[in-house]
Amino acid sequence: MDVTPQLRNEYRQRFRTAEVNANRKALVAGVVDSLVAKKARYERVGDPLDIPWWFVAVIHDLEASRNFNAHLHNGDPLTHRTVHVPKNRPPGNPPFTFEESARDALTLDGLAHKDDWSISRALFRFERFNGFGYRTASINIPSPYLWSFSQHYRKGKFASDGNFDRNLVSQQCGAGVLLRVMVDKGIVTPMSAAAAVG
């Protein structure tokens, strides 16, 4: 799957209109502050790969709850190779540092050395990192990985066993919502100003 004009327009429209749910604003602000506080560490991961620090930070929140003792791939402990998908990462002998494991996760997902970090492209890459399962005809809901804690998402989530539950509600803030708050606060300036507004 690649970014089509239709998909790009969907991302832009949802991003432009995304608003944090009132009962989640304080929580989201706290998450954003926590990510910004570790900006230098995220830069150490992303800079050698030409990946913006904020992309690494948001993935870290969603995949490992900002735990620097966990793999960016999926939150498994750094004391061993990953057990969950993707399994047996990174190559080498444990224990791993957060930085080496995170670079492996980002490289494995094909994110290294890309030159387009516009909003629509970043949202596509966030969604691809998690998977496009929410787009299947039988589910067809906005991905909570992107839009949880905003008006674009209400309920429906893949459970830990991999089965989709229409009544399960994500308890994590979506990547698109975190990025929206970062842009609104002036923390992140998108690569293309037009991508943020157009």
Characterise the protein shown here:
The chain is mostly helical and 198 residues long. The protein has one domain (5-197). It is built from 9 helices and 2 strands. A two-stranded antiparallel ribbon has the order 1-2. It is globular, with a radius of gyration of 16 Å. The protein starts with a helix and ends with a helix.
End-to-end C-alpha gap: 23 Å
The helix-strand sequence is HHHHHHHEEHH
Instruction: Evaluate the radius of gyration.
Output: 16 Å
Q: Give the amount of beta strand, in percent.
A: under 5%
Give unreliable regions as ranges.
192-198
Domain count: the total is: 1
Assembly of the depicted chains: single chain
Structural class: mainly alpha
Q: In which range does the helix fraction lie?
A: 40-55%
Calculate the mean pLDDT score and round it: 93
> What does the largest sheet look like?
2 strands, antiparallel
Strand order of the largest sheet: 1-2
Number of strands: 2
What form results from the Cα inertia axes? globular
Secondary structure: elements and pairs:
Elements: H1 5-17, H2 25-37, H3 39-46, H4 53-64, H5 98-108, H6 119-130, H7 144-147, E1 157-158, E2 164-165, H8 175-184, H9 193-197
Helix pairs in contact: 1-6, 3-4, 3-5
Question: Any descriptors?
Answer:
198 residues; mainly alpha; two-stranded antiparallel ribbon; 2% strand
In short:
Helix content is 44%, strand content 2%. It is an all-alpha fold and 198 residues long.
